[in-house]
Design brief:
Elements: H1 10-24, H2 30-42, E1 45-51, E2 54-59, H3 60-63, H4 70-75, H5 80-87, E3 91-94, H6 97-108, E4 118-122, H7 127-136, E5 150-155, H8 168-171, E6 178-181, E7 200-205, E8 208-215, E9 220-221, H9 223-229, E10 233-242, E11 258-261, H10 267-295, E12 297-302, H11 308-319, H12 330-340, E13 345-349, H13 356-359, E14 361-369, E15 375-384, H14 386-392, H15 402-412, E16 420-423, E17 430-434, E18 441-446, E19 462-463, H16 464-472, H17 481-495, E20 503-508, H18 515-519, E21 540-541, E22 548-549, E23 555-562, H19 573-576, E24 580-583, H20 588-598, H21 601-619, H22 630-633, H23 645-665, H24 673-684, H25 689-693, H26 698-703
């Protein structure tokens, strides 16, 4: 049956949205709230309005009728085509992933999620305007709306200047990096002043990406800069990366540009996302490496599938000082990892049957033979376990002290005239190094530096004490770590030093072992100050070999622990206080990146929908039980990463559903059998549970 009580003004739509939100906020009781949540999930087209500085969403079917209500809407849904005709007088229809993110954030307030939608936005605003409002009202803005921070800066030659090229070499001499534009009212530069402080900008010239910068200052004018660089308005920036090699940022500056916000699925957006992903991965690896160098022992903990074991390889290479491998390239990491296995990297898995004799040392049977090779019996001899073998792999040459060699080398390079040219770690370039007597830093400068400053100018000073700590494996020159390592290698080559080498022991599933049974008396020696170069070095007499044994300072231990595994109880407290803990979370960005590489957007949407729906299911306060949090329970991102729909279906059926079923049977989450059945049926078909719950209402489904 048709319905003809259509809205007459835009204010009528706003009034209907207020009514719907009064339901959502529980002002009319739980029955109305549940009804409104259902409508929010099931619609296809949504009107977006800004009411009281808050971004609101409402199904177009509901807001298209005059003074609509729950009762009126249930009595007659009306014809969606007719309401759309009325709405388009005041609104324009768009489809934008940024609005999808805002909408999912709105739904998350009610513990639900839905699929991608289409939106009606007012004719006098743009999606960028809505996003800018959401950014300013942070309590309404989703945390993962990253791409609104990305701006595209198109380089161009200034009009009327005869094609004058910008001299970036001269701009290097400026005390602070700047990006400049023309007049504020210039159509090409009108968005420049709207870029929020802290946002990331991509600088391009034509089709070529030049650099990534971060805005770190407000708008300003400078007559001197304008005279030199043909600009009027400037922003201070921090150079983040150089497009030719974004892992090796260089301070090159640029001016003149057309500014516009990056949109998804564009080349510039992908470039920024890739760089940020690299930096995020690098930041995580750096954090773990720094913890290892100070604490010597860390444990990566998290729910299944969050990448605990996956990340140990890159962390191991980083703490070993391997610098010629891209630590974000897992294939390259694993190739180098396998080269170092059982030499500088050792791997084991704890289980309840493992003991001291397997891990440290024990008596093992060996067949004895006579001169003819005939067996004459069995003898039991001490045999090293993996822990002792890892400790013994740290080689020391006491005849050469690396610290003394560094001091001797400083005397060789005392004064600028005695500077030496040394290769970088990669060998693709070189550095000048020299030392001024009495200084606490070493002067260091790339031989390829284009700086016009005085020849003794040092852009990369290296702290001597930190270099010595890095040489001993006890710390790092955190500002210029790669340059410091190049200096250390030059010293070793000069004096033929055979210094201590670092070794990493990886213990997977560390919480599944009986710690007292495995480590025995060596548990005390794990502490950094009890190791051989610590403040209170200790040694113990091993029971089988009868030798004194200590744990070297250059041995680093990385453990992994599944936070949902209750079969072995909590981790031994003696071990816990000797380790630093890093929690890995289930990461939606990893899933997106995986499917972007596959170029399979349809499967990505299904996987992300499943991820969000399962997360909402686990986070539902009614399902929470015990001391577990979402980071402990959320199914890891690796479970949602597949190469085909069939593979994703298999992962859901044979990996995700059994895991959640185990949570339910163990009482970790509290869910009724009916709700479990509905959820599992939906997920088996790669559908959100909320869509299935009301699927029986075929008449309503046909109307939305």
């Amino acid at each position: 049956m048709d319905r003809y009580d259509f809205i007459e003004t835009q204010e009528d739509i706003v009034s209907n949205i207020r009514t719907l939100y009064s339901y959502l906020q529980g002002e009319q009781g739980d029955e109305y709230k549940s009804w409104a949540i259902e409508k929010m999930i099931r619609g296809k087209n949504y009107v977006v309005e800004i009411i009281d500085s808050m971004i609101c969403f409402a199904p177009s079917r509901f807001v298209g009728y005059l003074n609509n209500s729950k009762e009126k809407h249930e009595e007659n849904h009306g014809d969606g085509t007719q309401t759309d005709e009325k709405i388009k007088a005041y609104y324009q229809k768009v489809q934008d992933e940024r609005l999808d993110l805002l909408f999912q954030n709105e739904l998350s307030k009610y513990g639900v999620s839905s699929n991608q939608k289409r939106y009606w936005i007012s004719n006098d605003i743009t999606v960028d305007d809505i996003i800018r409002i959401s950014r300013n009202k942070t309590k309404y803005a989703p945390q993962n709306l990253e791409f609104d921070k990305y701006w595209h800066i198109q380089m161009h030659l200034p009009e009327g200047k005869g094609g004058t090229q910008i001299n970036s070499t001269l701009m290097l001499l400026e005390p602070e990096p700047v990006i400049g534009t023309g007049e504020w009212d210039d159509g090409q530069c009108r968005n420049f002043k709207n870029i929020d402080n802290g946002n990331i900008v991509l600088v391009r010239k034509g089709n070529q990406a030049i650099a990534l910068c971060q805005i770190i200052g407000q708008n300003f004018t400078d007559a001197n800069l304008t005279a030199k660089y043909i600009n009027v308005n400037f922003r201070k920036v921090k150079i983040l990366s150089w497009a030719d090699d974004y892992k090796q940022p260089q301070s090159r500056l640029f001016s003149q540009g057309t500014f516009s916000s990056c949109s998804k699925n564009t080349e510039q957006y992908k470039y920024i996302k890739d760089w940020l992903a690299y930096m995020n991965n690098k930041a995580f690896t750096d954090k773990c490496t720094n913890l290892l160098r100070s604490k010597h022992n860390i444990i990566l903990q998290g729910a299944p599938g969050t990448g605990k074991t996956y990340n140990t390889a890159a962390i191991a290479l980083d703490v070993l000082g391997v610098s010629d491998v891209d630590l974000t390239d897992h294939v390259a990491v694993m190739n180098r990892y396998n080269e170092l296995l059982d030499n500088r990297i050792f791997f084991t898995t704890f289980h309840q049957s493992l003991d001291y004799e397997d891990f440290v040392e024990g008596l093992k049977p060996h067949v004895q033979a006579n001169a003819n090779g005939d067996s004459i019996g069995i003898a039991y001899e001490p045999e090293d376990g993996i822990f002792k073998r890892a400790c013994n792999a740290v080689v020391t040459d006491e005849s050469k002290d690396i610290i003394e060699c560094i001091d001797d080398y400083l005397q060789q390079i005392n004064g600028f005239e005695n500077r030496k040219e040394i290769p970088t770690i990669s060998g693709r370039s070189s550095l000048y190094v020299w030392w001024n007597d009495g200084n606490t830093t070493i002067n260091c400068r790339s031989t390829k530096s284009t700086s016009k400053r005085e020849k003794e100018y040092t852009p990369s000073p290296l702290n001597i004490e930190k270099i010595k700590l890095q040489a001993l494996g006890k710390g790092s020159e955190n500002n210029w770590q790669q340059y410091a390592q190049a200096f250390i290698e030059a010293v070793k080559k000069e004096y033929h030093v055979k210094a201590n080498k670092s070794v990493v022991l990886i213990i997977d599933e560390i919480n599944r072992g009986n710690i007292s049974k495995i480590f025995g008396e060596l548990i005390t020696l794990l502490e950094s100050d009890k190791r051989d170069k610590g403040q209170h070095p200790l040694k113990v007499l091993l029971p089988y070999s009868k030798t004194l044994f200590g744990v070297p300072s250059n041995l680093y231990i990385i453990g992994t622990m599944n936070t949902t595994d209750r079969s072995t109880g909590t981790l031994d407290y003696a071990l816990r206080r000797r380790f630093a803990f890093v929690t890995l979370q289930s990461n939606l960005d990893v899933i997106e990146k995986h499917y972007n590489k596959l170029n399979n957007q349809e499967l990505k949407i299904k996987a992300i929908g499943l991820f969000n729906d399962i997360k909402s299911f686990i986070m539902n306060p009614k399902h929470q039980c015990g001391d577990f949090g979402i980071d402990d329970l959320m199914v890891g991102h690796s479970y949602f990463m597949a190469s085909s729909e069939d593979e994703l279906v298999n992962k859901v059926e044979f990996e995700i559903l059994p895991l959640i079923a185990e949570y339910i049977s163990d009482g970790i989450i509290n869910v009724s059998n009916e709700e479990k059945t509905k959820a599992f049926q939906a997920w088996s078909n790669l559908q959100p549970m909320q869509v299935v719950e009301k699927a029986v209402d075929t008449e309503y489904d046909s109307l939305i």
